Amino acid sequence: MAVYIEHLFKAYEERDGEMQYVLNDVNLTIETGEFICVLGKSGCGKSTLLNVIAGYLKPDKGSIRLNEDEIHGPSAERGVVFQQHALFPWRTVSQNVQFGLNMRGVPDAKEIAQKYIDMVGLTGYENKYPSGLSGGMAQRVGIARALANDPKMLLMDEPLGALDALTRDSMRRELERIWQITKKTILFITHSAPEAVYLADRVIVLQKGKVSLDQRIDLPRPRDITNPKFNDYVRQFESEITGVAADSVITE
């Protein structure tokens, strides 16, 4: 699914008679099957952009088209994964993954759910409840639940942000593997430049509601974090965000 964002504006408040735009004339094209990471400081508009694409927020001006269809609200075509997994605590892993399928009356919901439970590496945990899962396992369930509805696009708002460092590193590799299997178009919000370089085909930097940088990552997969070019990209993005010269940036 290709995404076309044209002259997108979104404001939350008015100050001194003028609208304060958190998204200010954003123009962006995401090609089918691309993995896009969006970087920027808190308040730069990253999550707002995701929520507008998801259909949870309406833009003030501009348009977003998925292929040729303009977005007018939420749709099963766009699966969303948030930082907090938001699983139903009274439902098992399998029941959580089946939820959207059951709501739509999809036949063979249990079998479809099992396919994605297996894909995210949770075979054997089907009857566990969220309280019995680690943070990384719970996020895998959230990803499986989003994938089970077979969306054309995945929207992920810092889905690894609440995990410890070791689990986060493992989940990055897992997410890349799942993306390569499913070939979904992914928009991934993160505040970590190394994470963006590891995952993305392209990295978008937002500054004050505008696209300040749109950079393709020219590195083979799987990405080697010891590659000097990997760290050159990290310094480039952190310099863009902080305004500090790239040769002065200390990478994570």
Please render the helix and strand layout as text.
Blueprint: E1 3-15, E2 18-30, E3 35-39, H1 46-54, E4 61-66, E5 69-70, E6 78-81, H2 93-103, H3 109-119, H4 135-148, E7 153-157, H5 165-182, E8 185-189, H6 193-199, E9 202-207, E10 210-216, H7 228-242
Helix pairs in contact: 2-3, 2-4, 3-4, 6-7
Class computed from helices, strands and strand pairing: alpha/beta
> Main beta sheet, described?
6 strands, mixed
Unreliable stretches (pLDDT < 50, length at least 5) are none
Q: Rg, please?
A: 19 Å
DSSP strand tally: 10
In round numbers, the mean pLDDT is 90
How are strands sequenced across the largest beta sheet? 6-7-8-3-9-10
- Tally of individual helices: 7
End-to-end separation in angstroms reads: 33 Å
Outline: globular
What series of H and E elements makes up the topology? Answer: EEEHEEEHHHEHEHEEH
Helicity range of the residues? 25-40%
Strand content: 25-35%
